[in-house]
């Protein structure tokens, strides 16, 4: 006999447990490839950043253009792509920075795979006396 009296009583007392067992027995999961094929290369996504820096207001126009070109080339030489680089405007500062009450704001939109270019920009802008302040912000995708 396939079912004994105790097994039948158990199934009658706990029908939900039996149905779960049956469903689990009939469910077949298809195997999935977790790692993917080995010949495919992973593409690194380019993260988007916005860099804002304040240039001292008494700088000559030629020197400002050279400064902007230099810092744009620092980004591109270290693997980043400069999407847009533009002057914002001359604005009054909330407080004095190095005895200046105004500053020339410049905005740069950048795409980079890693932070090498941004770290180099950060390091050199801290050293440069023409840049009063700078800020690097990672944009949401």
UniProtKB/TrEMBL annotation:
**The keyword Isomerase belongs to this UniProt entry's keyword annotation:** no
SUPFAM superfamilies found in the cross-reference section = Ribosomal protein S6
Q: Single GO cellular component annotation?
A: cytoplasm
Any GO BP = translation
Q: Which CDD domains match?
A: bS6
* Lyase found in the keyword field: no
Q: Which PANTHER family match?
A: MITOCHONDRIAL 28S RIBOSOMAL PROTEIN S6 (PTHR21011), SMALL RIBOSOMAL SUBUNIT PROTEIN BS6M (PTHR21011:SF1)
UniProt name for this protein: Small ribosomal subunit protein bS6
Q: Write down the species.
A: Streptococcus anginosus F0211
């Amino acid at each position: 006999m396939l079912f004994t009296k105790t097994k039948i009583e158990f199934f009658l007392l706990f029908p939900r447990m039996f149905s779960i067992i049956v469903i689990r027995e009939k469910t077949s999961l298809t195997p999935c490839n977790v790692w993917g094929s080995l010949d495919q290369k992973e593409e690194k996504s380019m993260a988007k950043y916005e860099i804002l820096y304040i240039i001292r207001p008494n700088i000559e126009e030629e020197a400002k253009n050279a400064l902007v070109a230099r810092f744009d080339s620092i980004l591109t030489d270290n693997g980043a792509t400069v999407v847009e680089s533009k002057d914002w405007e001359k604005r009054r500062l909330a407080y004095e920075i190095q005895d200046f009450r105004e500053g020339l704001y410049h905005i740069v939109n950048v795409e980079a795979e890693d932070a090498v270019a941004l770290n180099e920009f950060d390091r050199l802008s801290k050293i440069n006396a023409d840049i009063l302040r700078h800020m690097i912000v990672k944009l949401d995708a």
